[in-house]
Specification:
single chain; alpha/beta; six-stranded mixed beta sheet; two-stranded parallel sheet; 12 helices
């Protein structure tokens, strides 16, 4: 029988040193501990004995990935807590989305949106919304860019839609899909990528290896991109070089607020936490782990979003028209109000 807190490494091919005990296979492990629970990965056999498969990494959307907190909560009878956490995260995410929509649309557009139940997507080309290039270089393959036929296609598509910005999506048939990778992943050549992304307003380079590709391609190549010339290129090292695929999963709503902030469609108060301007911001450093706080609830170090529209004086004028009185001054006023509230209240998910 396992002692409380005891961890056993189960690896089918090797014995590891440094654990209280190791097992050479799942079968051997279950033979020794027949009542133990095995948490498997998305490609493990879900029908195997005592096995629960964790497949959060297979979710395409941020909310879908985050909601796996309920899976873990159920193991510890913490469903109520997970519901509160998920609800608070969703509330902040939706608030940032509504703020960006309010600030980036005309009164008549907001009136029309109020009469439809269809969620907006980020593929439209008929307006002047700012454009976002989401791309990174894979050595030996090419440029990997966003593919967003719908906002649910991937996490970056969802963030762009939430912030009401246009994300550049790879056109059908453009690029190559190496057979060595199963034909699932598409890459653009330097020439194709230049034509694809040269006019984007902002560029998120989803990697910690910007300097490496910069040295490989040279500044002359990047000078052809509007986002680079305007110093609007961001990478994912705001918290630390390696946190994007780890701690970031617990803060999808913060990344959503970051995207709105770098695209200029927020209240102007949120400082991007995960997305780092490569020209102006230092690489983030994770704080030292405080063992005394290991069992404390995790709270993201950002303030709650405050809705702009609800604070402003919005009135209807005639049929199909909405006017915001003294809109510029009102937005400035709500920024000040939000700042005061942010300084006075420490945001908590519980």
């Amino acid at each position: 029988m396992l002692d409380e807190g005891e961890i056993i490494n189960v690896d089918g091919d090797r014995d590891d040193v440094g654990h209280s005990e190791s097992a050479s296979s799942v079968e051997a492990f279950l033979a020794a501990y027949p009542d133990a629970l095995v948490l498997g990965g998305p490609y493990d056999n879900a029908d195997a004995a005592n096995t629960m498969v964790i497949a959060g990494s297979q979710e395409n959307t941020n909310v879908g990935q985050f909601d796996w907190i309920a899976f873990y909560a159920a193991l510890y009878n913490k469903e109520d807590m997970s519901n509160r956490i998920a609800g608070s995260a969703q509330q902040n995410y939706d608030c940032a989305s509504e703020n960006s929509y309010f600030l980036s649309t005309s009164p008549i557009q907001r009136k029309l949106k109020a009469t439809t139940s269809t969620r907006r997507v980020a593929e439209g080309e008929e307006d002047g919304r700012p454009t976002l290039l989401w791309a990174s270089w894979f050595s030996g393959y090419g440029w990997s860019v966003a593919s967003c036929p719908t906002y649910q296609s991937d996490t970056e598509c969802e963030w762009a839609a939430a912030c009401n910005v246009k994300i550049l999506s790879r056109p059908e048939g453009v690029g190559n899909a190496p057979e060595s990778l199963g034909g699932r992943y598409w890459y653009l050549s330097d020439e194709e990528f230049l034509e694809f992304g040269k006019d984007a307003d902002r560029w998120v380079y989803k990697s910690q290896h910007w300097l490496k590709v910069f040295e490989e391609k040279g500044e002359e190549y990047f000078q052809q991109f509007k986002a680079y010339r305007n110093q609007q290129v961001y990478d994912t090292q705001g918290v630390s070089p390696n946190s994007w695929y780890e701690q970031r999963l617990a803060e999808y709503y913060v990344v959503g607020m970051d995207v709105c902030a770098i695209m200029g469609v927020d209240d102007g108060l949120h400082k991007s936490r995960w997305l780092r301007n490569i020209f102006n911001d230092p690489i983030g450093v994770m704080p030292q782990c405080n063992v005394a706080e290991i069992d404390e609830p995790y709270v993201a170090p950002v303030s709650d979003c405050m809705p702009i529209a609800a604070t402003l004086n919005v009135v209807s004028e005639g049929e199909g028209e909405v006017n915001v009185k003294d809109n510029a001054g009102a937005v400035s006023a709500v920024q000040g109000f939000t700042l005061i509230a942010s300084l006075a209240v420490v945001a908590s998910l519980w």
